[in-house]
Description:
Elements: H1 3-14, H2 24-44, E1 51-55, E2 62-63, E3 68-71, E4 77-81, E5 87-91, E6 102-107, H3 124-136
Antiparallel strand pairs: 1-6, 2-5, 3-6, 4-5
Helix pairs in contact: 1-3, 2-3
Amino acid sequence: MTVNDILVLVRQRLNDMQKITFSDAELLYCLNNAMDELCEELAEQNSPEILKELKALETEPFILPDDFIAWQGQYPLEYKTNDDNQTVVSLMGPNWDGDEPTLKYYASKKHFTSMQETIPFRTLLQKQALMKMCVRQI
């Protein structure tokens, strides 16, 4: 299913098949907001669908990824904000086995920029939820 396919379903529910009330750009904006909302919901449900891994060095701080929602599990970490308003994360204490511990986190999906992009969710239920959330954004 593509962005265009899902926006056709959204337009059907909005009775805007002729694109009179809403432009594609407006609906794309709403779809991106709905995708963020769905990703946060999936993170709360501990869904592996949006799980990513991050390799960290025990001695080197790292910048929190832009797509970060929440950690899967608990890690002894220290947070600071740098001058560029980025969150810098450091591993705390001698509790790490090896030099590169793997941290797992829930991540938001990349925003859509074109109508031909594929919807990045695996199940039909997730795609339907995305469509319904998009309608609610309006």
